[in-house]
Amino acid sequence: MVSLASILTIAIASAVVAIVPGPSVSLIIANSIRGSSRAGLLNIAGIQLGLILMILVVALGIEGVMTVMADWFFAIKLIGAAYLIYIGVKMLRSDGSFAQEKNVKPPKIGYFWQGFFVLIVNPKALLFFGAFIPQFIDTSGNVFIQSVVYGGVFMVVAGILDSMYAFLAGRAGSMISKNRILYAERSGGAMMVLGGLWMAGLSKN
Q: Mean pLDDT over all residues of the chain?
């Protein structure tokens, strides 16, 4: 059965996971600075959709399917790693001036799908849902309901914290200097590249 103690523990763990800058947070901050908070919120909407899919995978217990399709998931991880590195390199090469432009063009795939894709290939999210949440599942109860509830706790906590990042970064984008914008961009870019390299390393194992 769903336990209040487990919900509180997962909420705290979710806050720690969500607040630590990773590929998703770096993306939200960068897009909020350059395209206003709305861009970051669209990223978050895509991220939330990705979380729903991950929760369903855990809730329905599709480990067998993932094993059978191991080669397919391997390819997805490599594509995801390459995409994270691509975004990171673009951010590292930025001169900071784009953040001062009034009409910033969104990515070709759109902010929503960009957020969705970055979340799906994010190892932090995969590890959290695949390894942490199952520890709280009582197999004598309804596994599906427990998985959905505990996963929903993560979604709510992550959504709130990510939205705070988006609003703060969007507000700061019009106030901070070009040099600080450049620093934020390159820091985020470095996080993206490191995340992509990590994903590539995991794919080899």
A: 76
